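Batch job 17 of 40 flagged for manual review because the log was empty.
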Amino acid sequence: MATGPRYTVPMRRRREARTDYHQRLRLLKSGKPRLVARKSNRHVTAQLILTGPDGDQTIESAHSSDLAEFGWEAPTGNLPAAYLTGLLAGRRAVEAGLEEAVLDIGLNSPTPGSKVFAVQEGAIDAGLEIPHNDSVLADWSRTRGEHVAEYAEQLDEDLYGGAFDAADLPEHFDDMRDTLLEADEL
């Protein structure tokens, strides 16, 4: 058994449950750029990555905090922000000359309607060709944040502590989506 430093990193990453190498190999064999969608409680990240002989190279990326530059006032960790982050990354990728990609959700559970699939839907709407099944995408009303607005209207106090009125989220989402689709420079 080989014991060089070349074998320690993959074994460590597998042991720490940070990388699924079987899934990564399937994605790399496609030969297409990967749309890497990652989420946390507060943010969403979308990156378009090419794999080459010298390792992975990030072509374009978007972080949900980038949405503030375009006027986004709502929190950045929700489903509408995930869609808009995918839309922004997709627009940037199309401008960089990419036409297609495959979705890489990493170790996230492939739960239908989740944030990683909202990122995918945004990138598709931006013009990227990404193989997908429509059954994993959220209902458009959820993507717009209508469920958040309905919940906010039932509460006696502000949902987001007064910084943003969550009842206005669907309209704010629509305005933001139009802004990103019509923006000349991203």
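Reviewer: the log was empty due to a logging misconfiguration, but the result itself is present. The helical segments are 5-15, 21-29, 79-95, 115-126, 140-144, 146-154, 169-182. Unflagging and moving on to job 18.
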